[in-house]
C-alpha cells in the first residue's frame, strides 16, 4: 500500500501574514493526522515573501506540539546553510520532546537566491560542495557518544532519527543509494530527471542498518475539489507562483485564483510553466485518482508527498480530505 504524506510551505497569502500562515499550517496538520496521512513535512526556504517555513525546526516543533501521532519533519533542511552540529542539536531536541515522531530530510540546495546564500553562509560560499562530508558529520552526532568524544550533540547522541536524502538530480540519488538511505525526489517542481534518478537509486542501492531495500518518496502537486473546474481554478494560485519564477522574481505572497491562467500569462509563459508542474493531479476525486494512479504506475513510488497551495484555507483542507479518500480507494484496488 502506497503511503501518502503532506509537504507544507506555510504559505503566506496575499492580505495575510506569517502568524496566520502558521495557524493554517497547524490546523492542516491536525486534520492530516485525523485523515490518516503518514507524515507532515515542512520545507526550508529563505527570502521568499510567500513562504513562511524558513525557521523549519521551530515550525516542526509548533506542528508536533499540536498533534499526537503523525510523523513531523523537514522536507527539507538545506544542510549547507547550517553547521551539522546545530542541526543535530535542533532535531535531537525535537526528538526528545516528541519521541518516535521526528524525521530529518536534508538537501544540498540553498532554497533561496544567490545574495541570500551569501547572507546565510557568510564567508563560506562553497558550503554546498561539502554536502556529503557535512552529511556524514551530521549522522555521526546521532550515534551513541564514545568515551572521550570531544564534541557531542546534546541532545542528539544515541537518538534514532531517520535521515532522508532529498534531491532533484542523479547525484543525490547516487548518494542516497550508496548510504542506504531513503530518497525523496522534488518532482513537484523539478521533475526533469526523475526517471533517471529513480533508476540510478534503485540499481545502486546498498542495504544498510537503516534500510534493507530502496524506498522512494515523490513530491506531487495535488489540487482536488468537488469539480474539475473548481480544482483548475484553485490550481491557478500555484501556477501564478511559478509564473513569478519564470519572470525572474521570488515567490510573492500566494495570490487568489483567477478564472483562467490565460488572464495573467502569455502562451509562452504557460508553456514554460507546464513542464515544471508535470507531477500534478488536478480535478475532482475521480480525475485525481486517475492521475495519481498513472503517476504511481510510471514511477513505482513507495510514498507520495502531496503539496497543495491554495489561497483559501477551506479549499486546502477540502483538497487533502478528498485526497485521503483517493488514497483509500487506491489501497482497496477500487
TrEMBL record:
What cellular component terms from Gene Ontology apply here?
cytosol
One Pfam match: Bac_luciferase
> What SUPFAM superfamilies does the entry give?
Bacterial luciferase-like (SSF51679)
Luciferase-like domain residues are 4-302
* GO MF terms held by the record: oxidoreductase activity, acting on paired donors, with incorporation or reduction of molecular oxygen
Signal peptide (residue range): none
The protein's matches in Gene3D superfamilies, at most eight in alphabetical order, are given as: Luciferase-like domain (3.20.20.30)
Going by the entry's taxonomy, the superkingdom of the source organism is recorded as Bacteria
**Family annotation (CDD domains):** Flavin_utilizing_monoxygenases
Give the UniProt family note: To bacterial alkanal monooxygenase alpha and beta chains.
| Protein name according to UniProt | Luciferase-like monooxygenase
Where does this protein come from, organism-wise? Answer: Thiohalorhabdus denitrificans
Amino acid at each position: 500500500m502506497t503511503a501518502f504524506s503532506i509537504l507544507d510551505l506555510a504559505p503566506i497569502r496575499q492580505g495575510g501574514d506569517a502568524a496566520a500562515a502558521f495557524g493554517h499550517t497547524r490546523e492542516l496538520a491536525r486534520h492530516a493526522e485525523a485523515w490518516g496521512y503518514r507524515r507532515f513535512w515542512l520545507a526550508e526556504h529563505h527570502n521568499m515573501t510567500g513562504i513562511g517555513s524558513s525557521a523549519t525546526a521551530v515550525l516542526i516543533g509548533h506542528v508536533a506540539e499540536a498533534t499526537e501521532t503523525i510523523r513531523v519533519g523537514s522536507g527539507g533542511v538545506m544542510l549547507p546553510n547550517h553547521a551539522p552540529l546545530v542541526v543535530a542539536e535542533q532535531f535531537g531536541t525535537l526528538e526528545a520532546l516528541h519521541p518516535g515522531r521526528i524525521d530529518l530530510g536534508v538537501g544540498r540546495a540553498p532554497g533561496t537566491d544567490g545574495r541570500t546564500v551569501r547572507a546565510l553562509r557568510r564567508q563560506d560560499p562553497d558550503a554546498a560542495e561539502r554536502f556529503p562530508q557535512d552529511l556524514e558529520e551530521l549522522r555521526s552526532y546521532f550515534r551513541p557518544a564514545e568515551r572521550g568524544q570531544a564534541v557531542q550533540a546534546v541532545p542528539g547522541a544515541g537518538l534514532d532519527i531517520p535521515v532522508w536524502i532529498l534531491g532533484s538530480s542523479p547525484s543525490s540519488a547516487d548518494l542516497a543509494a550508496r548510504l542506504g538511505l531513503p530518497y525523496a525526489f522534488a518532482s513537484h517542481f523539478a521533475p526533469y530527471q526523475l526517471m533517471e534518478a529513480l533508476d540510478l537509486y534503485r540499481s545502486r542501492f546498498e542495504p544498510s542498518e537503516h534500510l534493507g531495500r530502496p524506498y522512494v518518496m515523490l513530491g506531487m502537486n495535488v489540487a482536488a475539489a468537488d469539480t474539475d473546474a473548481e480544482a483548475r481554478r484553485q490550481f491557478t494560485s500555484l501556477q501564478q507562483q511559478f509564473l513569478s519564477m519564470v519572470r525572474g522574481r521570488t515567490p510573492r505572497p500566494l495570490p487568489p485564483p483567477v478564472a483562467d491562467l490565460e488572464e495573467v500569462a502569455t502562451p509562452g509563459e504557460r508553456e514554460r510553466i507546464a513542464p515544471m508542474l508535470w507531477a500534478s493531479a488536478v480535478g475532482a476525486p475521480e480525475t485525481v485518482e486517475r492521475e495519481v494512479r498513472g503517476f504511481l504506475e510510471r514511477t513505482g513510488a513507495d510514498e507520495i508527498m502531496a503539496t497543495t497551495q491554495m489561497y483559501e484555507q477551506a479549499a486546502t483542507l477540502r483538497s487533502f480530505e478528498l485526497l485521503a479518500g483517493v488514497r483509500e480507494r487506491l489501497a482497496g484496488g477500487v
